[in-house]
Design a protein that fits this description.
The protein is mainly alpha-helical. The chain has four helices and two strands. The longest helix has 16 residues. The relative contact order is 0.11.
Length: about 100
């Protein structure tokens, strides 16, 4: 009568030491700020992150008097694809 409980206790203790089953089988991809923003709130948040990073890098310029974004410098080759899309939209028509 006691044997099943003892065996279950040993299995539970072993499982706690080794961690959850299958965690090593699924690799976790590295996520950047654009991906995290998209997962949090969709494309609007990802676009906001792209604008913020382009402003930080000096690629875009914000004119507060007119409340417009302008392309201030050429886009670098190492930019994220979402930053390229935002840059192309702003360069085509300041908004």
């Amino acid at each position: 009568l006691v044997t099943p409980f003892v065996v279950a206790g040993f299995r539970a203790r072993r499982a706690r030491r080794t961690g959850p089953l299958g965690t090593d089988a699924v690799p976790v991809p590295p996520l950047g700020p654009h991906e995290v923003a998209y997962l949090e709130d969709g494309w609007k948040r990802a676009a906001a992150v792209a604008v913020a990073r382009l402003l930080r890098d000096g690629v875009l310029r914000y004119e507060s008097a007119q409340r417009l974004l302008f392309a201030a410098a050429p886009l670098g080759a190492s930019q994220h694809p979402s930053e390229s899309v935002v840059y192309a939209a702003v360069a085509a028509r300041p908004t």
